[in-house]
Write a structure and sequence with these properties.
29% helix, single chain, 24% strand, six-stranded antiparallel barrel, alpha/beta
């Protein structure tokens, strides 16, 4: 979601025409904000708004310096960054995403040279020795088989066609009564949910790892824009419909980052919301206004410009500049303000050093609705990498919490029993 300079914004959106400037000036009845930004700032506001909702390829911003063979196995020397200096298990994607290596523990770190030496646990595809740049990811495994679990490739009917998904069965002979539906985050794919599959399987849940509009696998939305949860929840509802048609009686939603925002909208709006037994949200977006304000500040975008960018997303007249087919209702997705309306038991896991989606709204949601929301802070995991830095803790927390949520209800024969 990070943006660049005003010059980069103008390059991305083109020169503002007189007509466009007038459109910007007229976006708010009475000109409440129109007088607060000039033409250059308007260009930056347009760019900022479009960056939030426009799918884009992951930048290869991680430098690969060398791959060496030692007595203990293969190792890689990387440029030291805030990501590569966090201990744990991660992925390095390279060769435009065609290459994928699982990177393990830190062997040594040189602050003076700004390099870090790490173990290479597995190369799933590509030639790591030829890699010069790539991107870092918490999506550690390439497919269910890499986890040692069998999966079926299934297709889910969604707007515009079908969306591929992986179905991991808890039992070979029959469907489970409770299904876990894994909802990945913005700019990620269904690989993100693989980290939760073993825990779900241990609890007797079938797992459905879905794709949704604009993620590169599912059909794109007609406008080619993210709805930040306001449109994507319909694809989760379609996945729930598939699950119910194939034996599910209850659902547990897992969501990472924007996937958390999508899960919250699903629990609020779906016709199947009564089937959602619980939600597990990892570094979720609870309040988009907070996230956007954070990114504006992080990129040194003036406050009024950032607010103007938000306004473009929410006002009908902003569509001509953002490309959205309909405004995004950020207020409806502010679960910090709507905390008491959340009636689905929810576990929120969030690292306190998350510099992409600040943790404070997650803690605030739990503080305002402790009956429904349990907040579990992590430290040193940055964004959505809580499992990567401490998989044992993540799995223990999720397992113990879900065991309580999935315990049989008072009525005999409850559908809440895992299987």
């Amino acid at each position: 979601m990070a943006t660049n300079s005003p010059a980069a914004g103008e390059a991305a959106t083109g020169k503002l025409s007189v007509r466009t400037k007038w459109a910007l000036a007229g976006m708010v009845t009475g000109g409440t904000l129109a007088g607060l930004v000039g033409a250059g700032s308007s260009a930056l506001a347009v760019y900022f708004a479009r960056r939030v909702i426009t799918p884009a390829a992951r930048p290869a911003d991680q430098e690969v310096l060398a791959v060496i063979q030692s007595d203990t196995g293969r190792q890689v020397i990387l440029a030291a960054t805030p990501d590569t200096t966090v201990d744990g298990v991660f992925s390095l994607f390279f060769a435009g995403g065609a290459g994928h290596a699982r990177i393990g523990r830190i062997v040594s770190y040189s602050p003076a040279e700004q390099t870090v030496l790490r173990e290479v646990e597995e190369v799933y595809s590509g030639n790591l020795a030829d890699a010069r740049r790539g991107w870092w990811s918490g999506a550690t495994y390439p497919d269910p088989a890499a986890l040692g679990v069998a999966a079926d490739d299934v297709e889910i009917k969604v707007d515009g066609g079908t969306a591929p998904a992986w179905l991991v069965r808890a039992y070979a002979a029959a469907s489970a009564a409770v299904w876990a539906i894994m909802v990945h985050g913005r700019g990620a794919t269904r690989l993100e949910g693989l980290r939760a599959v073993r825990t779900a399987k241990e609890l007797g849940m079938d797992s459905l790892l879905i794709s949704y509009r604009n993620d590169g696998l599912a059909p794109s939305a007609l406008d080619g824009r993210y709805g930040l949860g306001s449109t994507e929840w319909r694809d989760v509802e379609a996945a729930m419909e598939y699950a119910v048609a194939h034996g599910a009686r209850e659902i547990v939603l897992f969501g990472w980052s924007m996937g958390g925002a999508i899960a919250l909208q699903t629990a609020d709006l779906s016709k199947y919301r009564h089937l959602i037994r619980a939600m597990v949200l990892d570094a979720p977006v609870i309040n988009w206004v907070n996230v956007m304000a954070h990114h504006a500040q992080m990129n040194r975008i003036p406050y009024n410009v950032g607010r103007y960018g938000q306004l473009m997303l929410t006002h009908p007249l902003g569509r001509r500049l953002t490309g959205l087919s309909a405004p995004v209702d950020l207020k409806a997705m502010d679960w910090e303000a709507r905390a008491v309306e959340l009636r689905t038991p929810t576990l929120v896991i969030h690292s306190v050093d998350d510099d992409y989606v600040p943790f404070e709204p997650s803690a605030s949601l739990a503080g305002k609705n402790p009956e429904m929301v349990t907040f579990e802070p992590f430290h040193g995991a940055r964004h959505t990498k809580e499992w990567n830095v401490d998989p044992e803790k993540w799995e223990r927390l999720v397992r113990s919490w879900l065991q309580r949520m999935l315990a049989p209800r008072n009525n005999p024969g409850s559908a809440g029993q895992p299987a």
